[in-house]
Amino acid sequence: MANGGGGGSSSGGGGGGGSGLRMSSNIHANHLSLDASSSSSSSSSSSSSSSSSSVHEPKMDALIIPVTMEVPCDSRGQRMWWAFLASSMVTFFGGLFIILLWRTLKYLWTVCCHCGGKTKEAQKINNGSSQADGTLKPVDEKEEAVAAEVGWMTSVKDWAGVMISAQTLTGRVLVVLVFALSIGALVIYFIDSSNPIESCQNFYKDFTLQIDMAFNVFFLLYFGLRFIAANDKLWFWLEVNSVVDFFTVPPVFVSVYLNRSWLGLRFLRALRLIQFSEILQFLNILKTSNSIKLVNLLSIFISTWLTAAGFIHLVENSGDPWENFQNNQALTYWECVYLLMVTMSTVGYGDVYAKTTLGRLFMVFFILGGLAMFASYVPEIIELIGNRKKYGGSYSAVSGRKHIVVCGHITLESVSNFLKDFLHKDRDDVNVEIVFLHNISPNLELEALFKRHFTQVEFYQGSVLNPHDLARVKIESADACLILANKYCADPDAEDASNIMRVISIKNYHPKIRIITQMLQYHNKAHLLNIPSWNWKEGDDAICLAELKLGFIAQSCLAQGLSTMLANLFSMRSFIKIEEDTWQKYYLEGVSNEMYTEYLSSAFVGLSFPTVCELCFVKLKLLMIAIEYKSANRESRILINPGNHLKIQEGTLGFFIASDAKEVKRAFFYCKACHDDITDPKRIKKCGCKRLEDEQPSTLSPKKKQRNGGMRNSPNSSPKLMRHDPLLIPGNDQIDNMDSNVKKYDSTGMFHWCAPKEIEKVILTRSEAAMTVLSGHVVVCIFGDVSSALIGLRNLVMPLRASNFHYHELKHIVFVGSIEYLKREWETLHNFPKVSILPGTPLSRADLRAVNINLCDMCVILSANQNNIDDTSLQDKECILASLNIKSMQFDDSIGVLQANSQGFTPPGMDRSSPDNSPVHGMLRQPSITTGVNIPIITELVNDTNVQFLDQDDDDDPDTELYLTQPFACGTAFAVSVLDSLMSATYFNDNILTLIRTLVTGGATPELEALIAEENALRGGYSTPQTLANRDRCRVAQLALLDGPFADLGDGGCYGDLFCKALKTYNMLCFGIYRLRDAHLSTPSQCTKRYVITNPPYEFELVPTDLIFCLMQFDHNAGQSRASLSHSSHSSQSSSKKSSSVHSIPSTANRQNRPKSRESRDKQKYVQEERL
Question: 409 is in which domain, residue-wise?
């Protein structure tokens, strides 16, 4: 039985090698049963012995462990697995015993010495710790030695802790190296798993064993470092990594000593994979929580899977010890991996299964934990992989191609509007890639939009507040960063604060990046000035939507329809050809015009601005409205229609209105020698003159060439002041003779100013307003309450109080709305003259009649409550109701006797030869408006689709774009969405925004914005020659052709002739027509609605009822003599002249008997103040 037991042991060990050994084992089992039956007969012992010997002969061949002649190994094939296992067990339990014994002795020592320590301490207290003379006793030498020993041990412990800590470079290298070597040892195990479980090997000739030995020596040294650095040795001894070392390191040394190898528990090295996520974090590869969690789950799952497969591989190839290892089966390691996977997943095909009792017992317990792990880990892993950011990559810059980053409010509407304008075909080839960065993944519609523009658009998910995301989109190499704002948010201040934080984050990451951001509120622009790296001279711009929106509306109060024309100029619109002779045909021809910049040819150098402007219009078919002028100190300024006193310099930048960028190139290519006799402007192209070859590199700096569709100024020549140089202005002696001690203008001289007034002094009751005949004024209907967001009414009033108007030309402004809301706005309005407030509601017809709505020059309808409603179709309900309410009003057909306005021409329809109507008599008889339809109104809308409700008689499709609708074409509706185009227009040409802001704000400059940021109000200033010179700047006006100097051209004349005559005679620059909608029809009852025609061609035929948009020079004599040529302030529907003064019903004679009541005295004082 001893031999049988020993043979069984050897058979189990040898049978793990392959099929041949497994067959020998089976034969041995059969012979063993025969041996048992034959040995039952005790009488035939010799034959039994002989039979047993013959049976065991082949079994011994199977028991022998594979051996070579060079390897000194056990020739009897004795298995030595217990020696390998014993080395690990002795190391583990021996070390555990020593640690526990040390702790026990230390505890007993502490307990035993506790009483003695107290006794010694008491003796020291009684005897005193100092000598009688008060000096300290010398410290005991033994205590010094103990302290030195403790210090030395602490130093070694600290050194070991630093060596294995991942906080230092050495520690990180060591940790990573240990992990890499552990993976290497695991790979060696995978290689050796194809060999028998136990085999003879020569250490000096087995290369894998040598490598494994080197690895384990390193692991042993690292184990020592960890042991020294550990604070709690017991817990360290029980750690997973320590257990792995116990069962993998000692068997290697045993292998060298016995010259044999046992596969054993080397599979435990797979548990090191659990630290994979830590290693990646040390290398700064994993940074996000999701990625760390994903790697953790994967490493735990895989390490558990491989470790369990190693155990199954060991027991199945070895067999059960109590069965003498005879129930083994040959399974490769990877078959065991497969077995564990189908077991965890509860599939269990049955093709591979455990036969040993140990294997089956292990599978019983493993399936409980494995199934739980599989059911919890795998779905979470799949979820993490599925939830990985689809747009989480990094942008790869393309050589020779610029890119911009667009962030902020990224929605389908905002992105589609931006791309439509930015990638418009009229911009030539836009070689710019657009990178969108947003923290929310796009929806299906937005994703489809990105795919349609995949060649030029990329989207990445992230936040500009995260520097890592800024690095992903290569913000440091981007040409600019554009920040879009949510125009429909409920809290504009919070939206502006978010965008300002985005600017701070981007500027903090890369201070030199150019940023163009949208702002909703004007007063929030001041916060951008607090950012140190914010520099408008370098191209940084803030597009304030409230400032521009109200500025556009204010200009419509001076020249109705101008808001539509300006909005179309900086928006890219494709030309839509219509064959029918309708108003849409002429309107759309003008819509296709945009604003561009181009450098002027040297052929224009030395010529005056009107001469160059006429040459461009007549010969080049281009309309130049402004230039960038460099003064003697090389400071750049944008001058709008400067007049004939200014001469064109070399390298002057011109601002043109044209249909595409290619046409504007004619101004740059024009050569008098080559193109003087060419009549077709399309033939004006780059000629072969050497002048043109040398001109471009000398005139254009590389910075100015960097964008298509327009060029930027260099940082040192950014336009600062949008007014004329005082030294270039002729006739400064004609400036109004004003008292320099009286503050009539602000400190910059750009706006009319008055001393701050209390709001109670400008409030009118309904009866007071009815007693005061208001005419030619502006009525502002405002919806708002105490909780409404401020819309910034100062931006509406400032253009109407520009200093290039004389005081008597200012239109009186009457606000009709909630007094609680207007009190909140009044702080920014109390420095402007001719402003009144009627508390009430714009829906009250009594309030509207009290302010003479039928005699106003313009009625503006605004609402501060538009963004507080979730339903977009109801956002404009108040404005629409107010507009329809006014249009449905009826007025008496009375004759209003108004003071004649001699600023312009005799109104259309009036006989100039009639004594009653002659301006000489000072009185003008005009028919008043009898229906509200003819009242000039401009309504602000938030939702573009709501424009269909403004005009009940139009036939616009609800899906029609805003710029194609009749209310917008007529200038009676304005939506903030049209300002979206300014983002791309400003990027391609930052001078465009400066020009637009100059036109619509009345002359606001960065210096003025900085001043307002300091005091939140305009500061009054004394009139000096410098400030008065600032009044000399152009303003927009409308001229009637029915009468006056241009009456001969109004009936069938050409627009080009009018353009040239106005430019030569009055330095007036015409740029559009405001025409009656049915002017082409010969019907007796024509509609009073008008529409805008932008930059008509030279041969365009005029009609008498046309109103001409023009840029007029400041008239110095208008303040003294009111007979000079000026703008026509009129109602566009009736083409009638209205005075902008305020009249009182009592006559002048009756006014001599002044009322003595306080109310009457205050009223009389108010009327006299308004007549100043």
Answer: 402-539
